[in-house]
Amino acid sequence: DKERRDILLNATTRRGPSGEVIGVIGVGQDITQIREITGEQERVADDLSRLIESANAPIFGVDPDGLVTEWNRKAADMLGFTKEETMGKNLVQNFIQPENRRSVSEVLHNALSGTETANFELTLLSKHQERYTVLLNATTRRDAKGNVTGVVGVGQDITELNQVLAESKRVADDLTRLIDTANAPIFGIDMFGRVTEWNAKASNLIGWSKEESMGKSLVECFITEEFKKSVNEVLSLALLGKETANFEFPLFTKHGQRIDILLNATTRRGPDGTVTGVIGVGQDITGIREITKSQERIAGDLSRLIESANAPIFGVDVNGTVTEWNRKAANMLGYTKQETMGKNLVQNFIQRENQTSVAEVLAKALQGEETANYELPLLSKHGDRYTVLLNATTRRDGEGKVTGVVGVGQDITALNQAMAQAKNVADDLTQLIETANAPIFGIDTEGRISEWNRKTAEITGFSKKDALGKTLVSNFIHLDYRESVSDVLERALNGHESSNYELPLFTKWGDQRDILLNATTRRSANGSVIGVVGVGQDITEHKQVSEKAQRIADDLTRLIETANAPIFGIDTEGKITEWNAKATELIGYQKEETMNKHLVNSFIHLEYRSKVSEVLQNALMGIERGNFELPLYTKDGKRREVLLNATPRRGDDGSIVGVVGVGQDITELNQQRTEALRIADDLQRIIQTANAPIFGVDVHGCITEWNLKLADLSQFSIEEALGQPLSLLIIERCRESVGNVLLKAQRGEQTASFELPLVKDGEQKAIVLMNATMRLGADGIVTGVICVGQDITEINAMKEDQQRTADDLSRLIDTANAPIFGVDLNGMVTEWNKKAAHMLGYTKEETMGKHLVHNFIQLENREEVESVMRKAMAGLETANYTLPLLSKFGNRYTVLLNATTRRDGKGQITGVVGVGQDITELNRALAESKRVADDLTRLIDTANAPIFGIDKEGKVTEWNAKASSLLGFSKEEAMGKSLVQKFITQEFKESVDAVLASALAGQDTANFEFPLFTATGERREILLNATTRRGPKGDIIGVIGVGQDITRIREITSEQERIADDLSRLIENANAPIFGVDRDGMVTEWNRKAADMLGYTKDETMGKHLVNYFIQPENRASVAGVLQRALTGEDTANYELPLLSKTEKQLTVLLNATTRRDAKGHIIGVVGVGQDITELNKLMADSQRVADDLTRLIETAHAPIFGIDHAGRVTEWNRMMKNITEYSKEEALGKDLVSSFISEEYRDSVDDVLKLALKGTETANFEFPLFAKHMDRKIQILMSATPRRGPDEQVIGMIGVGQDITQLRAATEMADRTASELSRLIDTANAPIFGVDRNLCITEWNQMMSKISGVPRQDVVGISIMDWLTDKTTKHSTAEMLQDALSGSETTNFELRFNRRTVTGHEAGQVVLLLSATARLDSTGQAVGVVSIGQDITEHKALEDKKMRFMAVVSHELRSPIHGICGLSEALSVSEDDPRRQKQLKMIRNCS
User: Fold this and answer.
1) What is the pTM of this model?
2) Nearest Cα to 833, choosing from 807, 811, 852, 814?
3) Is 1401:1349 a contact under the CB 8 Å cutoff?
4) Cα radius of gyration (the chain)
5) 1338 contacts 1331 by C-beta, under 8 angstroms
6) pLDDT for 723-744, tens place per residue?
7) Which residues pair with residue 770 across a beta bridge?
8) Order of strands, edge to edge, in the sheet holding 703-706?
9) Cα separations (Å) of 1440 from 1394, 1434, 1436?
10) Which residue among 168, 580, 1284, 1470 is buried most deeply as judged by most CB within 10 Å?
11) β-strand pairing of 820-824 with 1132-1140
12) Which residues contact 1362 (CB under 8 A, 6 or more apart)?
């Protein structure tokens, strides 16, 4: 007898003191009865909504303003815009291309006027710039009254269909355009040698326009006399079918300039294969012919440079055999060039113990991995030992292949002897820091870690190797603390030290360790700041003791403040003591405006003060009150209904100290029922009136939907179709395939664009392109299939017309005697002619659709070829690009390539076509002379030693890559500048100038040491060999300098001396107390901080027994034990040591005692590093008390409150939750809330709310059903879910604060039904009814009012009735009438006149309503508006006007003859003497 309860849940994230999420609190409301009301209406709406949303055709809707109101999943998938990105935006302005906006606007305007459009072809551009073509039906959307409310567009994606129609036309246009726009000269002749093709490149190159050349003899008009015969032979052979490749001949331009052309002559054939002419594809190779002359000169100069350089240089080939051995190497080692050439370098000239390492260096260089500053010990022929600082550089040939290694060295034998004497001074202090039992680290002035002792590595998990050189703040400090830590370090770098700074460090495993840190400025021997040293104590466990109590207080305080339900508190005098953020949001009064003010007198309406006071007074006496409905008025006068629980608040001794009220805003609960019915009616009309064919079948294949469009196409009416098997209405041959499609759709496999031929009486009526979509019921069970389609009867007739045009040009490309290929925009091969296949060995079938660069270009050329392709795809064509290719069978070819942009008929780029010439043989003639020059040039430029050259005037002529990277000046910045004046500092200019002058006089200089300053001002120490440079005739033309960067070597000797001074200053100046004792316990260290803290100077302590003189008697035994353990090698961490200063001040130090060892590892004493935690300990006692009050508040609150942690397990379960569910706190805690206490069908939705809260998103007024332990009663909970956060604002859980609204639901159900019935009555009444608020803005406008006025409800609600009326007199009288009604004076029989309006907004005659106006009152009796109920007396008034006009006419006609009678009778009476006649005349006059 499990009873289902629907719960409206608020899930709140629950956080720990550090802000981390520890659970979720869910506060719920029981809305079971509310949810039962709207079930059926929601089911119908859901069914139709799902139909639109899941349809496999794009569907959108717009309102009368063109703003998007519908956007189904297919539209989102196709165009890339989500529903959220489109809703409420203007369809035309935001999602239609500018060139289509006018036509689409016309279609939508027509549909909004009731004129629907079928099969409108619309081009769309997706979010990702993909083009789609949609065949669109635009259907008018109407409400239940038939008023137009928008447009629904149902489309079909015919992009692929259109592509089929466009392809055959594109090929012809493409190839024609290819010839004309190719970046290579192309011409064609007919069988008589007359020009038939002459592309733009040929015109540009030769100067003859296409018009000037067409029809003329190619040979006679454009070839010089001496080449006419040979060209004629080539063309004649091609006309016989024998093609010619790479025929070289000269052409002379129109202006007499000679151009060398490399030509491929290809036979041109007609559709039947007969020869119709020749196509010639050429390349302009004029520039190539000029290349070879400039390269032979360079080789001689560089060969002389290597031989005469004042640095030892050698070279080996790929087998390690010596190929270079310069004069300096011969002089130094005693082996002549003749003795070394051709011998293995390592085996013959390297000592046995170094052969392996040297062989490795050479092997790396042969693999392209160069080595710089490798120290190589050498033994000369005569037994002298030398040390050479060697740079090993890879040597490559012209094609980039590795051919050997070149080594450029410097003799540093004497230099090495100066580096061995400064290393032992700093051992003791270095070892102290490394082995200290306190974490110690150091940073340099740029924040990079320079010290990281063993204890720091142990705490963080990061080894010294992991840490050194990395930035401390960005790598080891959490993002939230980086700014504050940076401030501390920055102050220390400015000389302002910090003590007892709490530093959060995050370990390698993500754990936080709290370090109590002293940051001490680190200075060099000359007193300048060079970094910071931090000496710390790990106080993580120590700190956790104080945080536990603080966490509870912070958690509960934050819970009240951030709860998604309004919470307030008062003291025993009724003054406000709590006012949370939700209360501020709901009522509008800030916390500052409410605190210490009387709740009832200041914030409760006068008529409710007595009841509220009674509830609060009872609570102050211990009598709790649940679910008290409290009306509150916001700061701006709006009424809000709050369901309130009032709970006594108790102090530490249990006495009542106030009241806490936890509420829920239930104002909006009664406003949620009418929307679902409107949606169902709207969507049903859309299907029925859509301008696209739509039908539905049930699971048996019988028709359940058959709209008007489909009835028109098939000539089966809706009545004829419904209930019939679909198979009877389609052609017999398609019945099986259509049946399979419907079965697939029922299984969830949607089918897009299947053709459905409709037949009646054996005759095919139409072909419809349909999309089949599964139809689900509200319970998720398949109920049938819905199909949405387009009539494509006419489209199917358009597919066979355009194939023939492209045949001639396709054959031309395929049979051309030059390799031609094409790629699309993705780089996939789309063209591959016979010549390309013959040359490279790959057939067309092997290449088509594959990526050109990835599959057919060598790895080393791919990036460059990709660049050429990208440029061409951007419209920037490339001519004469030399492309190396490797055939399928390993043959190497070089192709001179023109890459031409390929465009479609609209000018859109669709790919690239490459037309090439095989210049393999031509290139082989150029390679050898260039190789020597390239090799030596590359040697200088890529050498791993800085090399520069100057001319006789001292200006830079060489500046290799190493010089650029070392000094920061590029080659372009250096070339032509004076070396000494531009790059040498003032004090060294004279000496450098002298060295260079000697070299220019023929006297070389070796191992000259001088400083250079880089572009950024950094000093570099250079060891230089200056060598005279000579020309081909032996004359001096400059100097070549080969150097070595010895900056680092120079830094080594000074660093070790600095360490000893640095560490001594570190201990003395550290901002933490540090002392040391020897093995006898006598003080040997006592730093400044220890002296400042305890009051004993260093002189007073040195040599005295630490324990006997400076430790209190009661602590001496334990301190002696700590020191004794350290003297046996057992360190002690975080020992709390109580101390008494010289001035009797009690201090507590957190101490790390570390064994001190000498250089040999012998124990010589103990060093203690401490932290003063006196103040820290005082902070640990104040946090526990705060938590008690808030814990009691939750436990005793009269509202159900629960909490969960990150895993969804219950962490809070107050007394009210126990009373409601009958589960005790012990039964609930630790169990999964959703799986243990929520019914199965609601688990997902409740889980979603809880997950949102755990992510920090609050949920208010979430209703859900809760089941009691014995399932004998139904509970409806209205809950607010609030994230629970730790001190660091991280979500640690959720708190739910709820209200049991089970009885409230029962009480409001009857009112809801009554309100619904009256709303329907007003809306459907046969009398015009409208209402206005106090500002005279329209709030009601029933169907009859819409019908009479011609204006739908949505167009007038919210606007002032004064703006709607046009006549000034009517406006004035209407305003007076409504104001009287608002004042309580009801008005009857008021005549309201206005003009009726048509659908288009034009006036269509006057309407007269006879109205009664009644004030509309709220629950407090206040007038909030006016309701007017009327009668349409327009016709009655028209009849009355006719009657009055008729009476006026009759009256006028009657009165006209009587006037004559009166005048005549009066005139006769004057002259009449007979009294009897006078009496008769007077009677006539009086009667008239």
Assistant:
1) 0.32
2) 814
3) no
4) 49
5) yes
6) 999 888 888 888 888 888 889 8
7) 754, 789
8) 703-706, 694-698, 782-791, 763-776, 751-760
9) 18, 10, 6
10) 1284
11) unpaired
12) 1336, 1371, 1374, 1375
